[in-house]
Amino acid sequence: MSLLDEALRAQLRATLDSTPWTTIGGRKLERYDGKVRDCYIDRERGERIIVVTDRLSAFDAVVGTIPSKGQVLNQLAQFWFEQTAHLAPNHMLRVPDPNVMIARECTPLPVELVMRSYLTGVTSTSIWKAYEAGARTFCGHALPEGMTKNQPLPRAILTPSTKAAKGDHDVSVSRDELLAMGRIQPALFDRAAKLAETLFAAGQAHAATRGLILADTKYEMGVDPGGTLVLIDEIHTPDSSRYWHADDYEVRRARGEEPRSLDKEFVRRWLADVAKWTGDGPPPVMPDDIRLEAAKRYIASYELVTGRAFVPDTREPIARIATALGAA
Ligand SMILES: Nc1ncnc2c1ncn2[C@@H]1O[C@H](COP(=O)(O)OP(=O)(O)OP(=O)(O)O)[C@@H](O)[C@H]1O
Ligand SMILES: [Mg+2]
Question: Is 112 in the pocket of ligand 1 (CB under 6 A)?
Fold first, then answer.
């Protein structure tokens, strides 16, 4: 067994599942637990302390934890925020721990900016499922006849998705439908759309230099206290994006095979095909070998995308982060 294998195996029983703190720096902070991240909101300083846990969400539910996943996600987001800072201002302020990002608290736009370059997807709301069912427009974009699964779209398209309340599913809409809902001003939306297009083009160009295809991704944006439109949340992580290996993409497609994917497709397939679970009822318990394999894939995605070696922090995460943040 390799050193990394051993470290990951030891982590199986010591993943970061949830955080227990009631104060940070001696002060009581507002708290919001997302599916993957625990946020502590410091209104006084206008900062959001985002603790990226090892939780994995699939089919809109939390299904368990994966060793090192939080660190991979946080450090990948950090990498991409640094890479794209010249293209769009972002919320990142500091990274005081491998699993923590301190960000500027913003007012999120009520829409997720989804960029797509390929006719793909697995869920019932994906562009591929819509096309397969006969749709020839998607979120206001005309789609040519005769396309096949995983084929490149004529150009990258923005398919906005309304942010549903916790527990509900998001809905894809066209620009016109979104504006008709009256939840966002056209000028603000169009500025966000432009940023999303710019960031996606940059992400795809970088991915190509690493032998990867960035097939699609989702951005969240917000307005900071100064009124600036800012990229928030995460960027180009395997949780928010679909990455494929470029080298055998054509060969596999010609054979009618799915692309080799870097994201949580592996876990989704285990859940759906082996455990027969696609989101209804309580999730199955993931066996250790599936969790280990998923961990290796997350780590591989970090190394492939960044070209850097991943160094897992194996110290007990709760005590370690508490020290870094002064949390109790
Ligand atoms: N700079 C920021 N300002 C305000 N909110 C932010 C900022 N960055 C991220 N967020 C929010 O923090 C949360 C991150 O948690 P996570 O992604 O785990 O939740 P989620 O399950 O996707 O979210 P939700 O439960 O809201 O659907 C999201 O609700 C995201 O919109
Ligand atoms: Mg999220």
Answer: no
